[in-house]
Amino acid sequence: MMKKRLILAILLTITAAFLFGHKPIFDDLFHGDFESALVIQEPQVSQITYHEFTDEEPVFWITFLGEKDEEIQLVLNVPYREKFSTMEVYMALFRQVSDDLDAAWDRLVTVEFPFESPPNHQMVRLYSGLYEREFFHEPFSNTDSWFVLRQRFTPSERGVYSVAVWPEQAFLPGGKIGFSIGVLERFTPFDLFKLPQWIEGIRQFHAE
């Protein structure tokens, strides 16, 4: 009987993985500056975190360790709501000076940072308005989003990356952003017990 339950739990988790896609990261701590960036482990694994821009946290910072020759995917999404239909965001990718970000990038922009740029870091700056907006329905939580920016890159060497995301002024405060990273789906049977909490958190983020 226990074996059957374990098999069922594994099957349900596998099913959830295909439906869910990203493993959510919920974190209520302050991530409004470079020093307080949210650390994402295993950036090759498909994960997503959420942020609402406020006067106290007008910029959302994330950091992760990129491995040489292991592709990284970065995606920004906003809730599928009328008030976010014209929301655009900026994203800056930083790493300590190296040759890693010298390759040509599409859709680069020149924009003033609403913060002090980290010293001795190389950077690229991206703008969601130069990407095609894509509708996405997430069936497990029954929520809808727009993908507003999707960018892939492959580190040419191992190194720590930092990402800053901030909205156009019209959506500060009150703008919402989902930041997802990675392409590999990796779930465990223990994640099954987290699904109700995950679904509640995702629905809350997408609510008005």
Description of the structure:
The chain is α+β, with helices and mostly antiparallel strands. 15% of the residues lie in helices and 35% in strands. It has two helices and eleven strands. The chain has a six-stranded mixed β-sheet with strand order 1-3-11-5-9-8. It has a five-stranded mixed β-sheet with strand order 2-4-10-6-7, with no helix packed on it. It is globular and about 45 Å long. Residues 6-11 have low confidence and may be disordered.
Features:
6-stranded mixed beta sheet; 5-stranded mixed beta sheet; 35% strand; 15% helix; alpha+beta; 2 helices; 208 residues; single chain
Shape category:
globular
Q: What is the helix/strand order?
A: HEEEEEEEEEEEH
Biggest sheet: strands, sense, closure?
Answer: 6 strands, mixed
Helix/strand/pairing category: alpha+beta
Radius of gyration: 18 Å
Roughly what is the average pLDDT, rounded to an integer? 85
Q: Name the strands of the widest sheet in spatial order.
A: 1-3-11-5-9-8
Helix content: 10-25%
Strand content: 35-45%
Total E-strand runs: 11
Low-pLDDT runs of 5+ residues are: 6-11
Q: Count helical runs.
A: 2
C-alpha end-to-end distance: 44 Å
Please sum up the structure shown.
The chain is of the alpha+beta class and 208 residues long. The chain is built from two helices and eleven strands; from the N terminus they run αβββββββββββα.
